[in-house]
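User: quick one
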Amino acid sequence: QLQLQESGSGLVKPSQTLSLTCAVSGGSISSGGYSWSWIRQPPGKGLEWIGYIYHSGSTYYNPSLKSRVTISVDRSKNQFSLKLSSVTAADTAVYYCAREVVVVVAATRWFDPWGQGTLVTVSS
Amino acid sequence: DIQMTQSPSSLSASVGDRVTITCRASQSISSYLNWYQQKPGKAPKLLIYAASSLQSGVPSRFSGSGSGTDFTLTISSLQPEDFATYYCQQSYSTLAFTFGPGTKVDIK
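Assistant: Done. Structure below.
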């Protein structure tokens, strides 16, 4: 059974860079038919998609965050990572990693499973 | 971006009730609509994908319908473990996925 686990700094100072890693177990990050996503949720609020990466390394980012986001993949470690630069208090959120199932024939896709999430607080 | 709205934003219901949650997209998204359940302190869990397909392992009391701009999630007989927040998500715009604001279902 595929499992995802986020890790990284839980406290980041304003203007610095947030860095998180998602370790994938129970399956290969290089498997076809999937992309690997980051999604966040500010405390008490809804969900915001940040971006995703294919095993090939192709990336797609939320236009509202694009200038500050980098997602990368390390196939040797079976993990992928998120960097968000120039953070402010508005970036305080629980950050989730998730696998995106992509069904090319039906042109449909969904997020499953998700990691448990990790809270990142931006504060001096 | 495609905007997603949900109604109601919250509802109170009793065990055994039939519950319906509505999700509306700002433009047609065909059937590219997914539903997730989130319990406090937990990650979202996929319930329904492609508007009406039940994810493996999800109880059959959950069902989804709709296409175009209007979608519904129905719980046919609410169970104690169903009290949670439900989110819809469009996968039509693959360069900008968006979620609805959520519907919180709590105990009456």
